[in-house]
Amino acid sequence: MSSIRSRRAVAAVAGGLGFALVLTACSSGDSGGGSDASGDTTADCADFEVYGDLSGKEVDVYTGIVTPEDTPYMDSYKPFEECTGAKIVYTGDKAFETQILVRAKAGNPPDIAIVPQPGLLQQLVATGAAVEAPADVAANVDEFWGEDWKAYGSVDGTFYAAPSGASVKSLVWYSPTEFADSGYEVPTTLDDLMALTEQIQSDGKVPWCAGIGSGEATGWPITDWMEDFMLRLSGPEVYDQWVNHEIPFNSPESEAALDGVGDYLKNPDFVNGGLGDVTSIATTTFQDGGLPILEGTCSLHRQASFYASNFPEGTTVAEDGDVFAFYLPGETEEDHPVLGGGEFNLAFSDAPEVQAFQTYLSSDLWANTKATISSEATGGGWISANTGLDVANLTNPIDQLAAGILQDPNTVFRFDGSDMMPAAVGSNAFWKQATNWITGQSTKETVDNIEAAWPAS
Amino acid sequence: MTGKFLTMVLAVLIFVAVVGVILFIASRAERRSGKGVALMFLLPTAVMLGIGLLYPAGRTILQSFYDAAGTSFIGLGNYETIFTSSDQLVVLRNTALWVLVTPFVATAIGLLYAILVDGARGEAAAKALIFLPMSISFVAASIIWKFIYAYRPDQPGVEQIGLLNQLLVWLGGTPQQWLVSAPLNTLFLIVVMIWIQAGFAMTILSASIKAIPEDVIEAARLDGVNAFGMFRFVTLPSIRPSVVVVLTTIAIGTLKVFDVVRTMTGGQFDTSVVANEFYSQSFRSDNQGLGAALAVLLFILVIPIVVYNVRQMRASEAR
């Protein structure tokens, strides 16, 4: 479930990475401007004239994004507030995923909810409380996002919610220094990745490290691994069928994908560098999973762009720094599937001020404002798949890498599958069975059990 | 915001008004029968019980006969799932393990400790020591024990940070991952609950040991009873009602155990119990029906223990 991930994502990058980068890269010459995030948000009000005068109106935003990464959000709303006179009331709640459903069902929804999973979006629309996106938002999404992103914000062909933030999950963390010293090269195909893994192993090291512990959500990093391999081994069409349950979860393709992951994670020669045996993957928290890279006891760790913040303060995250990430390659060099996540702004009210605010959030203006503010306030940690986003507004190398991957025309983007599956699978059986799988359960039994948990309807 | 605040103020005002009206009517009716007045005072409580307890309980029972979305009636389908699906059977097995082990072990430890420290020097300090865990929240206790069970690999340069594995290493063993393999991991979780509850058992039992009349003990001594005989024929029979109350109280608490499981394993590695599964089905899996059925099952399981507990309490108070 990306709820946890994306929250950490933003928080993470905001915190640690922010520190690292601000300290190492950005501090020179930028005196005074950095801390004052609202400095250049006194934007040109001409852009906001279309929304009219909204003085005295209020829009409440409900989200799972809490301190400290909520500050850039609130700051990015300020130009809208200053120019239109509307007031935006922001409420961040760690229990957002369960509370938003309760609120929607109880007839007490917020004006706008920032929903991190298409699956939850569908549940919310099913309560009957959500309202369709206005035409202006649809126009913005048509202009700045791909068809696929629009589909993630739609339910049964009706468009409800525009995407805002995004994250890239198909990344492998490594140490550029180690790669340079040992003569390793960043792999460009899956075969290369396996060859590199074997090479590292033959050098007497344990190549991979991993951790999937996350409390009751333990297991989610394996779902991401599996989705990445599903995309790579069977292609995006089969991936879509799999996510939509048009092919069963225990289909041969699905088994092949999990076995593909097992070739790395269940091979005792390849894991778990610095952390123990294969089973230790289950008990290591995902936050700790990649840290042995810094110790030199492992070389590779597959995790999303937000993982940057988990490295301790003072770690340089850059292409020539202590750690960096490369794109988890496809079968061939031309093959460029990317697994990612994102969040959507779903409205429960069609009042003019709510529609105006929704439209602002779906514009390239907001994407750039948010990116600039995030870069200044927290050293980055926020990207969007909005093609109107100017990559120059991103100051941190991982954000630039991730945004570059998202905007690459060769990229075939697919949303995190477990976030789109029914909750009984995506946030329960899939995690649980993946955990059992890493502690010894067979691939066949694992996919069979997940298939059995799929709701009947 | 202001809207909600006004609603709250309004609700409080209505409450005050209702109570005022009741008091007024009661004062007028005072001269007549006491029964009518009693009923009048009972009314608000009954209404609140109805709204806060009976209605939700009824809704939950009703919901347990419906499907995941709560829209179509499926009869006993959810209960069938609980007793047939392999996942749910593991949950039932774990719950049984918890309820069978925790109360007896915690009570036994509490009792033994109470007897050992009874009358000893520094009794108060010794009691405080074992009572201390009681004041720690379940979540905090679980976090403490997570550290005790912490695992670090058996590799050069890696040091254990968990107490249990460090002890094991000192004794020449290899570190283990205590919380991974079922059903042993459930026992390691149960230890946390025992750690918390033993202090409670000790306090109650110690008090009732002290309440045993001195002349009974004196008489037994004169008869030449040894230490074990004293325990078997004097102490235990005298404190039997307290032991039962302690056992049942811990059993009820154990049936509802949620925090320990959720904090330590999140119900992973086959450690889920009914209370935890109820939460994860209702809120994580979005299976309202199954969640409700589990809640009802928990309720049904608690009833006999509560009834027994109440009867024992009455019996011990009557003495």
Architecture overview:
Chain A: InterPro entries: Bact_solute-bd_prot1. Chain A: Residues 1-25 form the signal peptide. Chain A: Belongs to the bacterial solute-binding protein 1 family. The complex is a heterodimer of chains A (457) and B (319). Residues 1-42 of chain A have low confidence and may be disordered. Chain A is of the alpha/beta class and 457 residues long. Chain A has 2 domains: 3-168 and 340-415, D-Maltodextrin-Binding Protein, domain 2, CATH 3.40.190; 171-338 and 420-452, D-Maltodextrin-Binding Protein, domain 2, CATH 3.40.190. Chain A is built from 17 helices and 12 strands. In chain A, strand 1 (58-63), helix 2 (70-84) and strand 2 (87-92) form a beta-alpha-beta unit. With 319 residues, chain B is mainly alpha-helical. The radius of gyration of chain B is 26 Å and the shape is globular. The N and C termini of chain B lie far apart (56 Å).
Radius of gyration of chain A: 22 Å
Roughly what is the average pLDDT of chain B, rounded to an integer? 89
Q: CATH superfamily of the largest domain in chain A, called what? A: Periplasmic binding protein-like II
Give the SSE string of chain A.
Answer: HEHEHEHHHEEEEHHHHHHEEEHHEHEHH
Largest β-sheet summary of chain A: 7 strands, mixed
**Range of strand content of chain B:** under 5%
How many distinct beta strands of chain A? 12
Q: What gyration radius of chain B follows from the Cα positions, in whole Å?
A: 26 Å
Signal peptide (chain A): 1-25
Family (chain A): Belongs to the bacterial solute-binding protein 1 family.
Organism (chain A): Pengzhenrongella sicca
Protein name (chain A): Carbohydrate ABC transporter substrate-binding protein
